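Slide 14.
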Amino acid sequence: MTPALHYCTMRCRFCWRIQSGDIANLKWQETQASQWEEPQEIVEACMQAQLKLLTGYKGNPKTNKIKLREAFRPRHAAISLAGEPTLYPHLGELIKCFHQRGFTTFLVTNGTLPEVLTSISDEPTQLYVSLCAFDEQSFMKTCRPQIPEAWEKLNKTLGILPSFECPTVLRLTLARHVNLSHPEKYARLIEKANPTYIEPKAYMHVGFSRLRLGFENMPSHEEIRNFAKELAKETGYSVLDESPDSRVVLLSRLEKAIRLA
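Slide 15: predicted structure.
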């Protein structure tokens, strides 16, 4: 889910969401919404949307009944679907509302609003920060920030990441011929954040990203695995797991991933 569907501080080339100007004459202010919904309303609407998605499965004889019962009682909220959730002014309260209903929360941010992360009242169950560039020049070219000093702000977020009690993740969305290079430079940034996990993942040629990048920019899982191994050498992390279907590798200093729920 997301509380900020069409709003973000950056216009990343690999992002699948529609961005202002992607379609002729369809433009809007992407860094600020005219109004925001209340946290309780958003959580309740998410619950109702989940039930609506399940319409018809109960009557399908091929449906796994156990999985259906689980789906009717969701327990995890990934606050990451599209947009930048730290733009939402009631983010801490939103996380709290989910927790009060017994949910885990996985917050994914691009890290350009560190002041929000330091002031949220409730930490998420797990915090993901997108790190999709190895230096400022590649950052400006790949992520195309819409706010001033975005690179400095991202680095500030990396610096405060060790202060979080929850597990933290640096997610590297990597596109061939764009930012899939210089593991040694990524490693220096990773050292600053000291995350619980590092997650190199392939760019996927889907959605509106197809207007900005080509199919040839989508790395194979082998490329991601090789990059992850180089990253492991540079950081001292080890490969903990991988998913070839998703073209993602999980690195950590842990011997086993933390089970959160």
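Speaker note: The radius of gyration is 19 Å.
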